[in-house]
Amino acid sequence: MLRAPRGTNDILPPESHKWAYIEALLRRLSKIYNFEEIRTPMFEHTELFARAVGEATDIVRKEMYTFKDKGGRDLTLRPEGTAPVARAFLERGLAGGPLPRKLFYLGSMFRYEKPQAGRYREFVQYGVEILGSPSAYSDAEVILLGVRIAEELGLTGTTLYINTIGCPECRKAYREDFLKHVSDRAGELCQDCRERLEVNPLRILDCKNQGCREAVADVPLMQDHLCDDCRRHWAALQEILTSLGIEYAVDPTLVRGLDYYTKTVFELKWPPLGAQDTVIAGGRYDGLVEELGGKPCPGVGFAAGVERLILAAEKGERPLMPEVSIDCFVLFPDSEDRRIPEAGFKLLVDLRRAGISGDFDALGRSVKAQMKHADRLNARYVAILGEEEVRQGLVTIRSMEHGWQKQVPTGQVVDFLKEEVSGGSS
Ligand code: ATP
Ligand code: MG
User: Ligand 1: which of 108, 205, 308, 310 to mutate, judged by most atoms within 8 Å of the beta carbon?
Assistant: First the structure.
């Protein structure tokens, strides 16, 4: 038997209904916050991610699905959504249009990671980006949308962690200070962090390893090294959040795994998820557009892991249980008298034409088995066409919710059910 590749998921019903539900929720909230959808390709030139996400990051060094196509192009399945959005923003002329531009995306990302609960090789992210605004209100806007998503999913007890990682200017000075401090304790660092010391030292801050944690326990903090502009922005964001009564915790070790971030970084965690408890993560990336060859253009956004949102919602106070039902099951015996199945099937066709969802038993089983099937499909009504009904030109309608049964002339069934399913009578 052939199996799906490791770290991928098949989303089957009823799971797929939860996906449709959550996608609709995300689209509805996008609209409320005025983000418009953008769809970019599933693969890009490898160089885009190398430049935007950064050569020194885990994503680029270890996690990308990179391949050469038959034309010899160096391509990569997108591991994240912000770089492609920024690329399209530049390439398609949005950068020259009205700003800020507010976009959202919803789609698969690919990373070669060790699969585990909440971590897959193909996973879906919903993300938002505001391009062209340096305002701390824009940071607050995306953070508020993230918090709102968690609320709408019934996740109580999420914690919002925020931090600032400054801009390339103030970070340079900080980095030196930081290196001075950590180099002395290089012996205590794990192998990965010893490498990071060379290429990406600030990432040591979020290593989970005990030795590394101790080595950075009393390092100087970025917050204390900010330039004027970064300090003002950091203070402004906290004032906005406080004025709105949004609870947050400052986590000075929060640095994020992508190089393009500047100033604000944040994560929304929901501890009951266990090891992979970050549901939403994002920040500001004021240098990214320029890095990709555009004029300087600030940006801020986040990405949410949709699988994790679903896992969390399932464990939360309001499990995602969208009702799966059909309006009407059309029940008719597989009679020798062809008029009966023909009348039954025609009724089904007419109902569907009228926008009423319906189904029947293609296997022509017994009436009892068909009733069971109707039940399994969670049919709200069953329309029964037996020999007697067809002879009299009637259809027996049974309400599965209320238990009543009525006989309706064949020609009136569609209108009758239309009225019923839209909640006309009971
Ligand atoms: P993590 O620390 O969990 O690896 P990250 O720092 O790599 O996350 P981002 O790249 O910012 O995360 O992605 C944002 C969100 O996307 C994460 O918070 C998570 O919800 C989700 N996510 C990231 N990687 C995966 C994955 N391999 N499988 C499922 N969801 C993921
Ligand atoms: Mg990761």
Answer: 308
